Amino acid sequence: MVYEPGGSADGHEQTPSDGPGEDESPTGIRGDVNSDGKVDAVDLQFVINAALGIPGTHDCDINGSGRVDAADVQTVIALSLSSGGETTGDG
Ligand SMILES: [Ca+2]
User: Fold this and answer.
1) 47 CB contacts (<8 Å, ≥6 apart)?
2) Please, what is the end-to-end C-alpha distance for the chain in angstroms?
3) Which of 8, 17, 33, 89 would suit a FRET pair with 25, their CA atoms being 20 to 30 Å apart?
4) CA distance 71 to 20
5) Within a 13 Å sphere around the CA of 35, how many CA atoms are in the beta-carbon half?
6) Which domains does the chain have, with CATH numbers?
7) CB neighbours of 85 closer than 8 A, spacing ≥ 6?
8) pTM of whole model > 0.70?
9) What are residue 48's phi and psi, to 5 degrees?
10) What does the alpha-carbon distance between residue 69 and residue 71 come to, in Å, rounded to a whole number?
């Protein structure tokens, strides 16, 4: 019996992205970070916090780029406007 202790095969991890939809949101609504069924200023706040590096409990990587940045913030803004979510003035 030959056993090589250094012959570990799992040197790297890859996330296979199979399937057309990668939405993990239970509501199925893209941008709905807190899964309350709508995309609004609350979701935006979560994404902004995440983009600033503030730890959160929600997955704020909206565009699936692997990190949360200004692009995700812009995406949620656009989604919140298109979904008719509540926004604070500025209209
Ligand atoms: Ca929401």
Assistant:
1) 33, 60, 62, 68, 72, 73, 76
2) 74
3) 89
4) 21
5) 9
6) 25-86 (1.10.1330.10)
7) 38, 39, 40, 41, 43
8) no
9) -60, -45
10) 5
Determine the residue type at 73: V
Structure tokens at 59: 């997955």
- Residues 43/33, Cβ–Cβ less than 8 Å: yes
Structure tokens that stand for 23 in this block: 């939405």
Give per-residue pLDDT as tens, 12-70: 555 554 444 454 556 789 999 999 999 999 999 999 999 999 988 999 999 999 999 99
Whether residue 50 contacts residue 71, with contact meaning beta carbons closer than 8 Å, is answered with no
Distance (angstroms) between ligand 1 centre and the Cα of 69 equals: 18
**Of the candidates 23, 34, 21, which has an alpha carbon nearest to the alpha carbon of residue 85?**
34
Residues 58/33, Cβ–Cβ less than 8 Å:
yes
Look up residue 60 and give its amino acid.
C
CA of 18 to the centre of ligand 1 (A): 26
